[in-house]
Amino acid sequence: MNSGTENTTARANASRANGMKSNGPVSNEGKTTAAMNGLKHGLASTSVLLPSETIIDYQTNIDAWATTLHPSSPGEVEMVARIADCNFRLRRLQRLEDAHLAASLEAKVKSTGTFKVLNIAQNASLGMTAMISTIADIRTPCTSEYLANLLTPIAAVIEMVIAADLPVAVTVPIEQVHDELKAQAEAELVPPEIFTKLFHIGGTVVEALDVKVAEMEVMLAAERERIADDLLLGDDKELMKFERHRARINKALDSELARMKVVRELSQGASGSSVGPILVELKVIGQRASPC
Q1: Banded pLDDT at 234 (limits 50, 70, 90)
Q2: Closest CA to 178 of 209, 147, 206
Q3: How far apart are CA 258 and CA 202, in angstroms?
Q4: Looking at residue 247, what is its pLDDT?
C-alpha cells in the first residue's frame, strides 16, 4: 500500500472516531437551540403554504414567538412552535377574509346603478375629450370620405353622453349638431364651421360630464359604506366559515398557552404536594386541545 492510500485511510478513521465522540450539544441552552432549529425547519417543510407565503415567512414567525416566549427546554420548543403555527394560521385567515370582503364589496358595488352611470359618464367624458381633440385642428373644408370616417365614432360618443343622463339642455345641442353633420354626408366638401360648432358644444358637454362624474362618485362612496355594513352584519356564508375556523384556531392557541403555563409552573420547582393537581390540569388541557 502506498503512502497516499495510507494517509487517506488514516484520515477516514480519525473522522469516524471524532464523530463517535460527538454527542451534539451538551448544555440545556444548546439542546434547546438545536431542538428549535430542527423543529422550525421540519414544520416549515411539512406545512401547506399558500402561493403568497414562503418558508422564510413561516420560519420568521416561529423565531418571533421563540424570542417572545424564550423556550428553555425541547418540550417548550415544541409548544412554542405549535403556538407560532396557530398564530401563522390566524394571520393567514385574516388575509383571506380581508380579500373575500374586498372582492364581495367590489362585486356588489359594481352591480349598483350608481356605478353603472358613473362608468358611462367617465367613458363619455374620455370619448368626448378625444373627439374634440380630433376635430380641433379642422380649419378648411374636408371631403365627405373624411366625414364618413368620423361619423361612426362621433355617434358612439354621443350615445354614451345621452346614456349618462345629463340635462336635456346639454344633450339636445350635441344631438342637433350631430344631425347637421349627418346631413353633410353626401356633400362634396364639408364646411369647417360645423366642426367648430361641434368643438364648442363638445367642450360644454365635457364640463357637464365632469360634474356628473363628481356627483356619482359622492353617491357611490355612500353606497359603498352601506354595502360594507351590510356585508359585515349580514349572513355571508363565507364569513361565517371564517369565524368558525378562527374560533377553532383560537381554541387550540389558548390550549397551547395554558399548557405552557402549567409546564413552566412544574419546571420552576413545584412542591411534591402540588405536582399531582398540576399534572391533572395538564392532562385536561391536552384533552381540550384541538389541532390548528
Answers
A1: confident
A2: 147
A3: 72
A4: 96
Give residue 24's region: left, alpha or beta (phi > 0; psi -120 to 50).
left
- Among the listed ranges 18-22, 34-38, 221-225, which one has the minimum average pLDDT value? 18-22
Burial class (CB in 10 A: 0-12, 13-18, 19+), 69: middle
Least confident of 20-34, 42-56, 220-234: 20-34
Tell me which residue has cell 353617491: 219
Which of the following CATH numbers is that of domain 112-233: 1.10.8, 1.10.357, 1.20.120, 3.40.1660? 1.20.120
Distance in angstroms between the alpha carbons of the first and the last residue of the chain: 62
Which three cell numbers mark 13? 478513521
Residue 141 and residue 147: Cα distance in Å, rounded? 10
CA pair distance 148, 177, nearest whole angstrom: 15
The pTM for the full model equals: 0.66
For residue 220, give the amino acid letter. Answer: L
Angstrom distance (rounded) from CA 109 to CA 114 = 8
With cell 375556523, the residue in question is: 245
Query: Average pLDDT of 254-281?
Result: 72
pLDDT for residue 24: 45
Grid coordinates of 88 = 401563522
How many residues make up the chain in this entry?
292
Domain residue extents for the chain: 26-108+237-288, 112-233
